[in-house]
From TrEMBL:
Belongs to the peptidase S26B family. One of its GO terms (molecular function) is signal peptidase activity. Its EC number is 3.4.21.89. PROSITE patterns: SPASE_I_3 (PS00761). It catalyses: Cleavage of hydrophobic, N-terminal signal or leader sequences from secreted and periplasmic proteins. The chain crosses the membrane at residues 12-33. Keywords: Endoplasmic reticulum, Hydrolase, Membrane, Protease, Signal-anchor, Transmembrane, Transmembrane helix. It is found in: Endoplasmic reticulum membrane. Catalytic component of the signal peptidase complex (SPC) which catalyzes the cleavage of N-terminal signal sequences from nascent proteins as they are translocated into the lumen of the endoplasmic reticulum. Specifically cleaves N-terminal signal peptides that contain a hydrophobic alpha-helix (h-region) shorter than 18-20 amino acids. GO terms for cellular component: signal peptidase complex. It comes from Carex littledalei. GO terms for biological process: signal peptide processing. This is Signal peptidase complex catalytic subunit SEC11.
Length: 176
């Protein structure tokens, strides 16, 4: 009986270690993401440019690094914003900033560098300006084309599932 028990332990222990390693890997990624959020004061410190609306400055697949601070937003800055009713943030340039004298709040108008008109049509129904709470972050730097894998996985979900499956298989079968 002891021989059977130790044989099962030998088979189960490596699988448990691999599951533990997978859990540690996932937790490490989450801690890194939360740390980046704290350091940059952004809810999303890294975003991928999904369209060509900012060409030639940023191309589809570029990864942007964002930060947020208390300094006033100025015309010419590249910001990432999200409006009510839309899930995907938009990367565009601030073309006009208007400060309201009565409240001191600012209104922001944006436009993609490669677009012929401003973004009013992208804002929520009847909305003519963005407010500071719509801004997720300001572009601080970028890596060209590194985010293209994200676009491919979004456009072709089968590739995403295959990649996740391969990664899980590698983690489960690695002997270390």
């Amino acid at each position: 009986m002891d021989c059977i028990k130790s044989f099962r332990d030998v088979k189960i222990r490596p699988a448990l270690i691999q599951l533990l390693n997978l859990g540690i890997l996932i937790c490490s990624a989450l801690v890194l993401w939360k740390g980046l959020m704290c350091m940059t004061a952004c809810e999303s410190p890294v975003v991928v440019v999904l369209t060509g609306s900012m060409e030639p400055g940023f191309r589809r697949g570029d990864i942007l690094f964002l930060h947020m601070n208390k300094e006033p937003i100025r015309a010419g800055e590249i910001v990432v914003y999200n409006v009510d009713g839309r899930d995907i943030p938009i990367v565009h340039r601030v073309i006009k900033v208007h400060e309201r004298k009565d409240t001191g709040e600012i209104d922001i108008l944006t436009k993609g560098d490669n677009n012929p008109v401003d973004d009013i049509s992208l804002y929520s129904g009847g909305q003519l300006w963005l407010n500071r709470h719509h801004i997720i972050g300001r572009a601080k730097g970028y890596l060209p084309y590194v985010g293209y894998l994200t676009i491919i996985m979004t456009e072709t979900p089968m590739i995403k599932y295959a990649l996740i499956g391969v990664m899980a298989l590698l983690v489960m079968t690695t002997k270390e």
